[in-house]
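Write out this protein's structure.
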Amino acid sequence: MASRADNKDGSLKEVQTGKHAGKWRVQYSLVDEFGKTQRISRIFPKWTDGKNFLHGLRHGTKVETAKKAKALTLGVWFEWLAQNDWPETLAEITITQRQKRFAKYVNEYFGAMPLTKIDPLKVRAFYQKLKEKGVSANTIISVRSDLVRAFNQAITPYQRVPMSVANPFRLPLQSPEKRIAVALTPEEARKALTSEDLDLSRKAMLALFLLGGVRLGEQMAMSCGQLRFEADLIAIDRAVRVEFGGKQSIGLPKGKKTRNAVMCPTLKAILLEHTHGMGPDDLLWPSASENKPRMKKLVYATWRTIIKDAKLPEEMSPHDCRLSHINWIEKLMPEVSQTTLKEHVGHAATGVTEANYTRPLTSAQQILRDNLERVVFGKQTKSRKTAKSSV
């Protein structure tokens, strides 16, 4: 008779020593529906009782009862969702971030705890411990969001927890203070872009943010080949993605939406000068040692020097440039349609082929291009003057 339960038949063996000497131990291993091996070990006073119990396990009559004796833990459940449920609806990077947050902040507290044993008092203490450790409010809210979703799915649709059980992770948390965004006026933007303290590289970066309305990740991944100077367009078809822990990778822009952003004449002139001598695959702002995107912290280091030398508000972020850009179009350019605006800033889906190989079929983008130059720099382009004279 086998001495351990590492086979499909299990084992029944008399205990030779200790307080259970003379009794009979049943050991049995099974693999649950989540792929986790669970070992059952029970003591019986009589050989007959042990034999009957093992017989029931072998024939499946007590398998469900045995499974329930080993309650489903949050760690096992979270990993099962990451492997089997979330890939259907979430991006791989999002799932990876959730797993890393769980491993770093949650596992030591709740990883081995059965779902049915987690209560609001324990959760409240857990949130407080994270706060005491110096974890940021935004991170705690992200952790809470991960756990609320996982526990909700345990209730429904998978019914791993009775529907009468309230979600213990759904406790209110204090919202972090919202940063007040900085919105520049066109005059402030023009003054910053014409600052004599900015070198060409930093002026080009600021111009791309303010006049192109691009996101930070799109700027980090920008290559010379994306600048279609002949069409006055920028093909936004890639972006740097920053994963949990700081790892960077290049993929599609936010929402997997590619687009064409317009270049007004001033932006075009600045970028033409900045990219002189570059090849199509060269990044506009590479790392110091090779043609790879700079790390995010290095981009922010450059941004801080731009803030100082362009005399911009200290609290301004690169994303505030995008906010300013969109505000100008919405508030000061009534001729630009909402459809054109959405296509320009990436709030509408566009295919990769369209972003790289098509050409504008209407004058809508020219209207946007002309208005950017007019509002920010007070200039009328040749096409706008011609249009007025023909009226």
